[in-house]
Structure formats: C-alpha cells, structure tokens
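[agent] plan:
  1. take the single chain provided in the ticket
  2. run structure prediction with default settings
  3. attach structure tokens to the ticket
  4. add a short note for the reviewer (M.T.)
[agent] executing step 1
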Amino acid sequence: MQRLAIKDKELSAEKVPLSTILANPEVVSDRIRSYLKGLLYHNLPKIEAIFKIALEVDIFPDEELKIRLLELVQIRHDVVHRNGKDKNGAEHSFPAEWVTQAMEDVRKFVETVEASVVRARLALLFPPKDKTQPD
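[agent] step 2 finished; step 3 output follows
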C-alpha cells in the first residue's frame, strides 16, 4: 500500500483532511481498495504499472505476448463498442486458429500473473537473508 500511495500518480495526488483520518483510521486502505476496485482491468498498461509498483513484479512473460494481448483488448473494444468492426469499418473475423491462439495467450498471461503474485507473497513471508549477517 505504501508503494502505491507514493508512486501511483492518482493515489499520491489524493488529499485527505485530518478530520477524515481521525474519523476513519482505515481511510488510506479504504481509498486504495476503492481505487483498485474502480480500475478497468482490460487497461493492461495501467494494470502492468500497478503490479510493478505494488508487488514489484512483471505481469508479462515477454514483449510479444504483451503486444498480442494489447491487440486482443483493442479487438474486444471493437466488438463491444463498434459492433465487431474496427474504426475504419472493417469487420473482424475470428478463425478457429486465431481463437485458439488468443485463448493460449490469455492462459499464459493468467498463469504469469498468478506465479508473480505467489512469488511476491513468498518474498514477503520469507525475505532473502542478509548475507552480511551471521545465521
């Protein structure tokens, strides 16, 4: 939470009156929780930044997957908001091999996010030993 409050542009710009803090000592965690709940999780660049700030992890295993997923998000936008057509009016098509690749990309992404979160949790529970200190 501290890294998010300091490094996230929107959260670091928050102004909270002292009276609000006195009335609710959990105001910081409540605001951060509300902020995270309000994010659009298909905004992958923003989500990538949040994970880097909060957990110090990368959510993309490689740049190629990131590019393909950003393209999928754009296609999703066209399907949801443009009736399946791109901004030039060309209709998207979804051949079986394309759908299979998209599903594989999403699966790989989800597995990478899950593994990154597990590693971050383990690092919190079992921080690396300081090599300069005796056991």
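[agent] step 4 note for reviewer: The helical segments are 2-7, 9-12, 18-23, 27-37, 44-55, 63-81, 96-125.
[agent] ticket updated
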